Amino acid sequence: MHVLSFLNPSELAILERTNKALQEAARRSWQDQCIIQGIILLATPDGITHRQIFKDLYPGIFGAQFYKDYLGNVGCVPPIPEKFIEMAHCPDPLGNPGETIKSNYQLMLIPAFITITVGNDSSLTLDEKGKLVKAEIRNKLPSFEKTLEIPVTLNNLAMLAKRALRRGNQTSFFKGLSWCNIFQQHGDKPVRESRWSYQKKVVVGRGQPYNEQKNLAEGARLEIVSLIERVLFNLLTYISSQNCPDDEYVVRTSTPTLDSHVPPKPWQSIVWWPTSGPSARLGLTRDNFGDNAVGVAVGVPSGSYSGH
């Protein structure tokens, strides 16, 4: 079992086809694979094996191991809500005929903290408010490493993606004129506790006013996911594959954001990748909030979290 722990999922799948003895050993190892990725279950639903959960339900999971490979450690991981497992094989209510949730949705961990280790010559540090900043290095100390436990906020994610990647495609946010409005209204609060998000990979309700998008999500028994969740989806997708999640202009909206007009007007805040990349833009739509709105990101409600 110790030897098998070094195999990746593809190698493990090959091994279990070798003979009955190795098939049994591989079966037990799938549970270990789930734990490594942070797929922790309170109970395995009847008829569902750990192999199915890892290989079939969530083959491209953004879990604990993904963060460790690309960014840093995430600490304790909560169990995946049973609802996410139960609904994986259900039809996608906003998809084409025959499409299921497991094929159209992305399971991803939303951690409360990401812990990174940097050298003492790194300019990255946390200020008194837990904001990751680039500070001036005044004194050259003997060589050692320092550990930073970074709260997951919009600003900190942008800094991590730009300056602390372990591997993958470097990216960041272009802080345009509307950054302050979005940041103040949606992005500065840290994630209170680690949770899972199971969101549709493409946006829905393109060209419909926001209220109609809300009705579309509610009618499908889905929820409009929070800004921090869709920002993470965009960043991790780009970091790992260099593919923009949606179209040429990636639009994954948040709840209303007020602009700087007097009186302020509500607009939709969006995350998008222009063709010039690799920096993502976080801005406001140019169209009025109630008119030609962009698509909205939706996900399966977990039933166990409130206020996100």
Structure overview:
The chain is an alpha+beta fold and 308 residues long. The chain has one domain. The protein has 10 helices and 12 strands. Strand 3 (124-126) and strand 4 form a beta hairpin. Helix 1 (9-15) runs antiparallel to helix 2 and helix 2 packs across helix 3 (50-57). The protein is flat, with a radius of gyration of 21 Å. Residues 288-292 and 304-308 have low confidence and may be disordered.
Search tags:
alpha+beta, four-stranded mixed sheet, disordered C terminus
Tell me briefly what this model is:
The protein is α+β, with helices and mostly antiparallel strands.
SSE topology sketch:
Elements: H1 9-15, H2 20-37, H3 50-57, H4 64-70, H5 82-87, H6 101-104, E1 105-110, E2 113-119, E3 124-126, E4 132-134, E5 145-151, H7 154-163, E6 173-174, H8 179-187, E7 195-200, H9 210-219, E8 223-224, H10 227-241, E9 252-258, E10 266-272, E11 280-284, E12 298-299
Parallel strand pairs: 6-11
Antiparallel strand pairs: 1-7, 2-5, 3-4, 8-12, 9-10, 10-11
Helix pairs in contact: 1-2, 2-3
**Uncertain parts:** 288-292, 304-308
- In whole angstroms, how far apart are the ends? 40 Å
Find the structural class using helix and strand composition.
Answer: alpha+beta
The main pleated sheet reads as:
4 strands, mixed
Number of strands: 12
Q: What is the ordering of alpha helices and beta strands?
A: HHHHHHEEEEEHEHEHEHEEEE
What is the overall silhouette? flat
Number of domains: 1
Strand order of the largest sheet: 6-11-10-9
Percent strand equals: 15-25%
Q: Helicity, in percent?
A: 25-40%
C-alpha-based Rg, rounded:
21 Å
The pLDDT mean sits at: 78
Number of helices: 10
